[in-house]
Amino acid sequence: MIDIVASGVLFDMDGTLVDSTAVVEATWTRFGNANGIDPDEILAFSHGRQAIDTLRRFLPDLPLAEQQRIAAELVAEETASTEGILEIPGAVAFVQRLVELGVPVALVTSAPRDLAAGRMVAAGFAVPEAFVPSEDVEHGKPHPDGYLRGAALLGVDPTDCVAFEDAPAGLESAIASGATTVVVGPLEHPVTAGLHRVHGYDGLTVERDGDTFRIRG
């Protein structure tokens, strides 16, 4: 159960609004197998992070330019594939309800702009005007830069925002920004201790009250 009063909403994308598991796992599994790295280890680290940060972790001895080239190839591969992209249950209707009520909404993702926009559309979402892709932050998650920028785009203090996230790096980022943080899905991790949690958006209600709104469910 959650019962939260806030003035703005910040959403992660992959695993929070959009289920892109099939595409992500296929891409990183091919990369791991090609480079003699356990794909499960890569996937455990990469979720919620920018591709370049994953390359730095697993191929640290490569020159930066080569890391950037490989990251760009991986992103291009993921961007080209939207088959199997789905909404997290109830997410499209929930976001639409927020927008209808005039609630400020921002998307804060570790994905590049084109990849994120393509996945959102494939899953049935309109891309929010307030949109923070990986290109727009100096430091990716778990740093709070993205969520701080998202709140700034909304004109809302981060401490008056609620952030929905599903991955450890993203949760750390949201918490560090000062936003009230909600775990989406089953993740059990030290960072989730004491946080609000939902397993989807079906059954959540939103009520507007002046400059604030209340999410319950």
Task: State the secondary-structure class.
Answer: alpha/beta
In the CATH hierarchy, the third-tier topology of the largest domain is known as Rossmann fold
Q: Please bin the fraction of helical residues.
A: 40-55%
How many H/I helical runs? 8
Q: Note the gap between the termini.
A: 5 Å
Q: Which architecture name of the largest domain does CATH use?
A: 3-Layer(aba) Sandwich
Describe the structure.
This protein is of the alpha/beta class and 217 residues long. It has 2 domains: 3-20 and 85-216, 3-Layer(aba) Sandwich (Rossmann fold); 21-80. It contains 8 helices and 11 strands. Strands 6-5-2-7-8-9 form a 6-stranded parallel beta sheet, sandwiched between helices. Helix 8 (168-177) links the parallel strand 7 and strand 8. It is globular. The relative contact order is 0.21.
